[in-house]
Structure formats: structure tokens, C-alpha cells
Amino acid sequence: MTTHRIMCHNLHMFPYKIQTRQPLSVNAIDARYDFANAMLKFVDEDDIDVGNILFSDEAYFNLDDFVNKQNWRIWGTENPHVAAPSSLYSPKVMVSPRFPLKE
Fold first, then answer.
1. With a threshold of 0.70, does the pTM exceed it?
2. Which residue from 16, 19, 55, 101 has the highest number of Cβ atoms inside 10 Å of its Cβ?
3. Whole domain around residue 69: which residue ranges?
4. Which residues are paired to 14 by β-bridges?
5. What pLDDT score was predicted for residue 19?
6. Per-residue model confidence as pLDDT tens digits over 1-36
């Protein structure tokens, strides 16, 4: 019997991923809340057509942090909601793929 099977089936523990995010100040949290409420108001009043919003994909890769977090897990009986702070102004590279809509 494997350790994974024992932890899941016998001990009822599951692996949870640790999320990394930048630490937010109280002012930043308030600004995000105000922005979200303003956008909801624009959508409710039909000032913004949601069908015309284009979402693109991009990712930042930090050059000084540990990138491969595939095996970075916490085992527990419930989700601990753990977040590891990362530095805000670390050197990074942004990858932003673009695909044409028509050929």
C-alpha cells in the first residue's frame, strides 16, 4: 500500500497546493473592491457591453523565486488556505501569446 493511498483512504488527508501571491496593503484591497463595484455598476447600466470584452492570456515568470511548484503540497484533513508571500518587485519575464482571429 502506498503512502498516498494510506493518507487519502485511511487518514482522510488530501494534498493542497500552496498559492503564492504578493502581499496586499489595506489600500490595495480597498482599491480592488472599489474597482469591482464600479465595473459591476457599468455592466448593470449597460455602459459596458460584456460581449465586446477580450480576455488575453499572459503569465509572469519570476527569475528569483522557485518556479516548479508541482510537488509543493501541504497534506491535511481540510484546506489550510495557505499563501506564501512573494516579493513584489522581483525580476521577472512576461510571456503574452497572441493568436490571430483570422488566417
1. no
2. 16
3. 3-100
4. 76
5. 73
6. 788 888 888 888 888 877 777 778 899 999 999 999
Grid cell in block for residue 93: 519575464
Query: Distance (Å, rounded) from C-alpha 72 to C-alpha 81?
Result: 14
Which one, of 84, 95, 91, lies nearest residue 22 by Cα?
84
Query: Distance (Å, rounded) from C-alpha 75 to C-alpha 6?
Result: 12
- Look up residue 52 and give its amino acid: N
Number of domains in the chain: 1
Cell of 57: 492570456
Here the contacts of 38-41 (C-beta below 8 Å, separation 24 or greater) are none
50 Cβ contact list (under 8 Å, min separation 6) = 43
pLDDT for res 36: 93
CA distance 83 to 22: 9
Residue 13 CA: distances (Å) to CA of 7, 8, 37, 82, 100 = 5, 5, 38, 16, 45
- Cell of residue 54, nine digits: 477580450
